[in-house]
Amino acid sequence: MSKEQQAQAQPQVAIPLPKAKKNLVQIGCICMMLSVAMYGLVFATLTAPILEKVDAMGYVGLFSIVGAIGVSIMTPIGGKLGDLIGRRNIVVIPGIICALAGFAFAFVRSLIPLMILRLIVSLAQGAFTAAPYIIAGLINERKDVPKAMGMLATAIAVGGFGGSIIAGILTDMGLLTVAILMPAIPLILGIVLIGMNMPNQKREGKVTIDVPGMIALIVSLCGILLALNFGSSMGWTNPMILAGLVIGIIALIALVKIENKAAEPLIPMKLFKNKNYTVLLIVGFICYFYQNAMNYYAPIGAMQVMGASTSAAGALQMPRTLITIILPTIAGAWVGKKAANAWKAMVIGTSLALIPMAVMALVTNSGASIMIYFVALAVTGIAESFRAVSITPTAQAMLAPEDMGIGTSLVNFANSLSGTIAVAVFAVAYNASTSADPTNVALIQNGVKSVFWTAAVVTLIGLLLVLFIVRPEMSKKAEGNK
Questions:
Q1: Smallest Cα–Cα separation from 350: which of 469, 473, 467?
Q2: Cα separation of 397 and 430, whole Å?
Q3: Per-residue DSSP letter, 212
Q4: 37-73: per-residue pLDDT in tens?
Q5: How far apart, in whole angstroms, are the C-alpha atoms of residue 119 and residue 293?
Q6: Which residues, in sequence order, are CB contacts of 112 under 8 Å at separation 6+?
Q7: What is the Cα–Cα distance from 478 to 63, expressed in whole angstroms?
Q8: pLDDT classification of 217: cutoffs 50, 70, 90
Q9: Distance between CA 474 and CA 395 in Å, rounded?
Q10: Do 115 and 63 meet the contact criterion of CB atoms below 8 Å apart?
Q11: H/E element holding 30?
Q12: CB neighbours of residue 144 within 10 Å
């Protein structure tokens, strides 16, 4: 075999790296996701202690929303900027900004600077949060991408689980500042490993930034997401809520028009003409939707309806977390063995979220055992493990090289958007049942059941999309490649 034939026979990757550098870059990606998860859970765990120190407990909701909106805004922008200025730059520059803002956050003790720094951290995280998934798709052979995604999913589980526990322990020891600084350690390590070993491939020639598109995106997301978050507490007919929704929708329409005319669009509208890619975005959105029900309403059901202790309710997700630490890498290796395994993994990811939600909706009552919740949430851990290694790699396989960054970022964006919208939808479902008397156990039971039924129905839609659209299309593609 000639050298030319040998080269052609070699598996092709978008960015070929020597094995040692590739491994270091992958470790860097894992460190970045550890940091993202640790920051998320550390801020969630420490929000009350932080705001208590500055006598601002009334701002807990706003503090959390600032973080969520920052990530949502910058995820698609970061994906596009990475295509333009280079994937390494979009990790190193926002990563350094995030580390510096996180460091300053640990020492500031005034509300407005804290809010500003929290926003900067979330904006910086949004800029690079999709980068590890994009890089995994660029430096690995296609068959190895699901396994790489599995390692990133494991890193998120470890970072969230370990980060929240360690942050709580450090805070109890009087070391709040150390707890806030902790997530910067894996972040800095990730920046160094990726910065030193990843070539900075970027768009050649003059770079055009779609500023009007960015402005329209920011106005749209802020208007819609703020209205959705405050709608349940302020009332959906409140003039400010209605104004936010109207402004957000008008900005969204403007965004579509701007992007259709832009020379270098922030979000290429052509991506949505790809039916298979668009369906995967919807399935990804749906696969995240139930998690808000699990995170917020399962503890309410356990404590208020079943009479479980606070510690028992707090431990509900322990089995799920352990599964999501161990299983994703194994699931990723299985998905990588055969193309058809991807849609099968999506079936597992949707069905094993649907079943627990339906079971919890059926059994939530004062006579039920909390062990049903433990088992149900453990099953969702299996669902999450298979979701994590199937949707993003499959979506990446449908993207042109020039759209890899923004295309992958939109998958992450759909995931984060799902959680924000789910908060509003579940609040409506719960409040509709409990508004007469929020303290009545029977009404709380009905409210929790309504939330779980809503989650089950939405997840059922995802399962049907996989069975009747994703599976036939992937099977057709597999037949065509034979």
A1: 467
A2: 39
A3: H
A4: 998 877 776 777 778 778 877 777 777 788 888 888 9
A5: 26
A6: none
A7: 47
A8: very high
A9: 11
A10: yes
A11: helix 19-53
A12: 17
